[in-house]
Amino acid sequence: MKITLYSILAVVVLITLYSCVSVSSENTRQASIEHKPRHHTATGFQNHPFVETAISKGFLFYMRRVWGSFFTPDIPAEHALSTEESLALLNSIEGDKISWLGHASFLLNTAEVTILTDPFLTEYASPVSWAGPRRFVEPGITLKHLPQIDIVLVSHNHYDHLDDETIRSLENKRKIHVVVPLGLKSFFVERGYSRVTELDWEESITIKSITITSHPAVHDSARSTNDRDKTLWSSWAIESPEKSIFFVGDSGYSKSVYRGIGAKYGSFDYAIVPIGAYEPRQLMWMSHVTPEEAVAIGSDVRAKKLIASHWGTVSSLSDEPPFEPPIRFKKSGLDNKFYEQDLWIMKIGETRSLLNEVR
Questions:
Q1: In this predicted model, what pLDDT tens digit does every residue of 96-130 receive, in sequence order?
Q2: Beta bridge pairs of residue 305
Q3: Is residue 87 a part of any domain in this protein?
Q4: Segment 320-337, tens digit of pLDDT
Q5: Which residues are paired to 296 by β-bridges?
Q6: Model-level pTM greater than 0.85?
Q7: What range defines the domain where residue 134 resides?
Q8: Is residue 130 part of a domain?
Q9: CB neighbourhood size of 339 (10 A)
Q10: How many domains is the chain built from?
Q11: Smallest Cα–Cα separation from 222: which of 27, 28, 36?
Q12: Residue 55 burial (C-beta neighbours within 10 Å; 0-12, 13-18, 19+)
């Protein structure tokens, strides 16, 4: 691969920017607000009291992230469907269904409502449009081929979960209902959306026949050098008359958080759990689970089926081999008494029916 001066300059700029984004104040992190929940601080939010909120991962970590984005891993032939295959499958399945668009982006259709989670359907998960962690496989169902979206559901504001270009490109903005954690409403209003609901942890909204509830996740937030943890992050319970689905988005592990959610709901039909971006552990444990911990989340929330998320899409987010996560996820699921058919490792662009999967 030819490395140009432009590429080298891009590396320097991105390393500097990512490093700055990750710097935060311990005073801010320890601040509290009278009469507000303990996860609120004077200037934003924290994971307290569940686990320490993530801090800077260091210059070398971000240098590896940016440098690795210039290279593409070898992609197994069965990993993704073409646009033609994806659309044919999507259109052939009627009723409740789910499509994986890569990373944490899913199309979920239940009770005739279509939900798009953590929209990232373009090339770079980055503050700039020309460098940074890069998508190495197309979503199958591209922006121009998306069905009509009723709800956009966002777990947090990191670039690989909330993509500016995707949000700007969605059609029928005035009709889409956006559901986000606290602090993210302005992001959507500035881009032409009018139906935007912010929720704190344990708050709910019902849209048509779908009830969506915000729950804790163990993570953090930032999109620039001065907004560290100023917006909240959430996991989500999605309940329709026929289905219950738990969408994690992104999280470190906390037994108390996820067992508490499981106790509240009794069970979920599905849990969409993140299985990638977990190495090196000494840096990632506060914000990203391992495949084994992803299975533990599924067990804690008492999910009947687990759907793998947050892997096999974006280069250079972390240090583990890009196609190791599903191997470990499947092994751990089987070791923890899930049946193989209840561990869904989908192809990018694949749609599966949920019609026969009812409570």
A1: 999 999 999 999 999 999 999 999 999 998 887 77
A2: 270
A3: yes
A4: 999 999 999 999 999 999
A5: none
A6: yes
A7: 71-353
A8: yes
A9: 10
A10: 1
A11: 28
A12: middle
